[in-house]
Amino acid sequence: MKKKILIIEDDPAVAEYLTTLFEDNGYAVCSAMSSQDGFELAQKERPDLVTLDLELPDEWGPRFYRRLSSDKTLKNTPVIVISGLSGNKYAVSKAVASFSKPFDRDKLIKVVKETLD
Q1: Rounded to the nearest 5 degrees, what angle is found at the Cα of 90, between the Cα atoms of 86 and 94?
Q2: Taking a C-beta distance cutoff of 8 angstroms, is the pair 40, 64 a contact?
Q3: Is pTM beyond 0.85 here?
Q4: d(Cα 104, Cα 34) in Å, to the nearest integer?
Q5: Cβ(83)–Cβ(54) below 8 Å
Q6: pLDDT tens-digit readout, 70-86
Q7: In CATH, which of 2.60.40.10, 1.10.645.10, 3.30.450.20, 3.40.50.2300 is domain 4-116?
Q8: CB-based burial label for 65 (10 Å; 0-12, 13-18, 19+)
Q9: DSSP structure class, residue 69
Q10: Which candidate, 35, 114, 55, places its Cα nearest to that of 7?
């Protein structure tokens, strides 16, 4: 069965780029534009991995991460931060990795594969 990645990203161009990148590499993808939609989707879809933008319209990314971490069925879901903010690697200390936009697609896929395979 395909591993599933949930993309939480409010920029449609970035979300579309990530969707194509992950699907081309054999992953199932679902995405949300806000942290609230992302959290509900995570509860419904049970993704194997979440990519998280820090600057979301309704909530700061680290706050979303705390909610995810306190949910007993989702707390072990690995998270990769993808953000335009500098210093983003400090925002979610337990993230598997943090990437700054624009990111290196090969490095991102390498981390995704190491995390999921």
Answers
A1: 135
A2: no
A3: yes
A4: 24
A5: yes
A6: 999 999 999 999 998 77
A7: 3.40.50.2300
A8: buried
A9: H
A10: 35
